[in-house]
Amino acid sequence: MELKDFIQQFAEQFDDTDASEIDAQTSFHDLEEWDSLIALAVLNMTEKRYGKRITFDDMKKCDTVEDLFNVILAK
Q: How many CB atoms sit inside 10 A of residue 19's CB?
């Protein structure tokens, strides 16, 4: 799993946020479109695409997309 791939997959979970607005240092909780439905989509994507299961609590502890990537790598 590479960070660049993960960022692309993460960005695809958003309908109205342009993928160019999302990079490794993006504080995803601050994105206008971020909500519980997108969080669920990210959890689902993580499990299906990468075979890793993370929790909402794992996600809450992350500030940036890269933080989330690192949590997933550690699973």
A: 12
User: Which DSSP category does 62 fall into?
Assistant: -
Give SS3 for 26: coil
Domains of the chain, start order: 3-74 (1.10.1200.10)
User: Residue 2: CB partners within 8 Å, gap ≥ 6?
Assistant: none
**pLDDT on residue 1:** 84
- pTM, rounded to two decimals: 0.92
Token pair 């997309």: residue: 65
DSSP class of residue 73?
Answer: H
pLDDT in tens, 26-44: 999 999 999 999 999 999 9
Q: Which of 74, 60, 70 is nearest to 24 (CA)?
A: 70
CB burial of residue 63 (10 Å; 0-12, 13-18, 19+): middle
